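Consider the following assembly input.
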Amino acid sequence: VKWRVTVVPETGSTNADLLGSDGPEGTVLVARSQTAGRGRLGRTWISPPGKSLTFSVLLRPGDAIPPARRGWLPLAAGLAVASAVRTVAGVPADLKWPNDVLHDSRKLAGILVEQSPSGAVVIGIGLNVSVSESELPVPGPGALEATSLALAGSGVSADEVLPAVLGGLGARYAALRGGGSVHDEYLSLCATLGRSVRVELPGDRVISGEAIDVDPSGQLLVRSAAGAVESVSAGDVVHLR
Ligand code: BT5
């Protein structure tokens, strides 16, 4: 992909903007401030103006990535952010399935992937950069504590991290388009695998067990104490112990 980056001082949600646009693949919208940042499942993403990296990219995978493998796009985005954070900021980061970026078990970045009816895929990334302790959102019940690159000891700016994330996302997107896999890299950076987890599924169902792998479509495989393996396509994972 050739990225074309536009930076705006403020918008509601960069994801909403790109979902409503008919821009070409590779369109990137960065907002210095977001007034209505969206999380998954109707939740909100909070970012104090100028202290985080909030942006979205528009992809048009078409037939190159069949629907059965599109589930890897959110995971590839998580890998791009975690590895950019490691290399550019020097902050040890890992992932909670599907793509929460964690440092020291606290949430450094969140990712929201949405599809438009026309088949465009919008990947929105929010990364806490120079957010201070008192500016971090207070986690609701069951939610992870938040952190930022600054609190993790790094002085990098949003503008220094962005090119690394875009480069890493482009490389992994190209791999997926070419029929390649990011499975092994994902296993190496995902802190969920091998853990005891509780998964809150949409519709209030909860399962628990050991997270054993990610299947060929990007779903999380959870083995219950009784030995049954369930695959999870969407849900909130809580790492236990
Ligand atoms: C996410 O949702 O983590 C996806 C966040 C995606 C944000 C980006 S910013 C650019 C683009 N444009 C948008 O409008 N959105 C995308 P979820 O897994 O549902 O997590 C949301 C939860 O994380 C909230 O309910 C809070 O508990 C918590 N949270 C909110 N703001 C946070 C922050 N800055 N740091 C850490 N946790 C936060």
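The mean pLDDT is 96. Ask yourself how this observation constrains the way the partners meet.
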